[in-house]
Amino acid sequence: MKKIKYLIIGAGPSGLTLAHSLLNRGISLSQILVLEKENVAGGLCRSEIVDGGPIDIGGGHFLDVKHKDVLEFLFRFLPQNEWIRYDRVSKINLHDQMIDHPLESNLWQFSIDTQVDYLESIAQAGCVQGADKPEAFADWCRWKFGSRVADDYMLPYNRKIWSMDPNLLGTYWLYKLPNVSFRETLQSCLQGKPYGSLPAHGVFLYPKKYGYGEVWRRMGEALGSSLKTKTTIESVDIEKRIINKTWEADYIFNSAPWESWLKWTLQIPSDIEDEIRKLYKVSIDVDYKSENLETKAHWIYEPDESIPHHRKLIRSNFVSNSRGYWTETNSARSNNTSEWRHRNEFAYPVNTINKRDSISKILDWAKSKKIIGFGRWGTWEHMNSDIAVKSALELSMNF
Ligand SMILES: Cc1cc2nc3c(=O)[nH]c(=O)nc-3n(C[C@H](O)[C@H](O)[C@H](O)COP(=O)(O)OP(=O)(O)OC[C@H]3O[C@@H](n4cnc5c(N)ncnc54)[C@H](O)[C@@H]3O)c2cc1C
């Protein structure tokens, strides 16, 4: 039996950051072990070379610039001069027209008749009229954006990405979206210019010569023999924190989906097992197309429910010396393809109505066993990689 102080499950951005952050705090490499089932580090942020250029196999990945500490940390592995800064160009393909995202700030780009239809509907929206906020997702969308934006864009797009009844989703995760203002929308239409604040990734970084996976690959490499890739977990003794009858840990940090734990051990109490089974996830297929598209967009949202994918990533517009694009499709909506495809079984944790209760019970129980859930799957949070890094940096401060 090998004794390890900190055993980390998963070498995605969260696991890699936690390992490096513990190292920075003076803990020796011999006390840290990261176990990863894939053959390379990076998790959903990995890239592969396809048709002569990189593809981000977990979907389109862009680094947000708002957290300085996160950038400083990542620049240690992929220096600042190896990234390009882009001003985001993202479009929505609606009514056979490419409208800038977000839709509610850019209705002025439609014909006058269409603008009037949208404005009329926004004037009647619940949040404009002062009505109480509804709990069900579909009602919430109509309350927030008016029926027209909800029915043309928000609801079809959400039905595509989640492939489930939108009313099974909670609304607690949408608090960041600003209220739609009739006055500002009207002003924007009259002046012919957008209003409101920039969406996430308004400015983003992407590696100059590589895919998004390069920074994480380098972080994994820097861990040397403390990162074990191609390692499948077969058993966990929860009481003694022994993994695969080989490693005994003081603490286990888990960034893998909790449902995997049901295969590794019989020691999970039945009430916690019930909560784990209530966690929903979405799988996403990433499909490569070699055709070059005539657009300046970095990505395009596709709410039309007659086509399977919900987003196109125009890699020739942000990956140097590349051609073509890739699509993201909920695996439940995917057709067969003869071209390159990568299926991400765990892509989006779903914010169902009861998720917060379930995950908090799971995390409390795990913590009582010195097993700490963190990262996208360990906390079942729809977090971007900059937030995964930030949270892991903060977590390391407690150990
Ligand atoms: C379609 C899509 C688009 C996205 N776009 C962006 C974006 O533009 N910008 C951005 O910053 N973020 C984006 N993200 C989010 C980003 O992918 C995540 O924030 C990030 O990957 C979370 O890191 P993590 O380490 O917590 O989880 P993951 O990346 O999922 O890593 C978990 C790791 O655990 C490993 N693992 C799982 N099970 C086991 C096991 N049984 N044994 C050992 N290891 C295991 C996995 O192989 C993986 O390496 C996007 C995600 C998706 C799905």
What is this structure's SSE topology?
Elements: E1 2-9, H1 13-24, E2 32-35, E3 47-50, E4 53-56, E5 63-64, H2 68-75, E6 83-87, E7 90-94, E8 97-100, H3 112-123, H4 126-129, H5 137-145, H6 147-162, H7 182-191, E9 203-207, H8 213-221, E10 227-228, E11 236-237, E12 242-243, E13 247-254, H9 261-264, H10 270-277, E14 281-289, E15 299-301, E16 311-313, E17 325-330, E18 341-349, H11 355-368, E19 371-373, H12 375-378, H13 385-396
Parallel strand pairs: 1-2, 1-13, 2-10, 7-15, 13-19
Antiparallel strand pairs: 3-4, 5-9, 6-9, 7-8, 11-12, 12-13, 14-17, 14-18, 15-16, 16-17
Helix pairs in contact: 1-13, 3-7, 5-6
Structure, briefly:
It is built from 13 helices and 19 strands. With about 400 residues, the chain is an alpha/beta fold. A hairpin with a 3-residue loop joins strand 12 and strand 13.
**CATH fold assignment of the largest domain:** Rossmann fold
Strand content: 15-25%
Helix-and-strand structural type: alpha/beta
> In angstroms, what separates the terminal alpha carbons?
23 Å
* Rg calculated over all Cα atoms: 22 Å
Outline the low-pLDDT stretches: none
Main sheet overview: 7 strands, mixed
Structure description:
With 399 residues, this protein is an alpha/beta fold. It folds into two domains: 2-82 and 208-282 and 351-396, Rossmann fold, CATH 3.40.50.720; 102-191, no CATH class. It is 31% helix and 22% strand. The chain contains 13 helices and 19 strands. The protein has helices at residues 13-24, 68-75, 112-123, 126-129, 137-145, 147-162, 182-191, 213-221, 261-264, 270-277, 355-368, 375-378, 385-396, and strands spanning 2-9, 32-35, 47-50, 53-56, 63-64, 83-87, 90-94, 97-100, 203-207, 227-228, 236-237, 242-243, 247-254, 281-289, 299-301, 311-313, 325-330, 341-349, 371-373. Strands 1, 2, 10, 11, 12, 13 and 19 form a seven-stranded mixed β-sheet that branches. The protein has a seven-stranded mixed β-sheet with strand order 8-7-15-16-17-14-18. Helix 1 (13-24) runs parallel beside helix 13 (385-396) and helix 3 runs antiparallel to helix 7 (182-191). The chain is globular, with a radius of gyration of 22 Å. The chain starts with a strand and ends with a helix. The mean pLDDT is 95. It binds flavin-adenine dinucleotide (FAD).
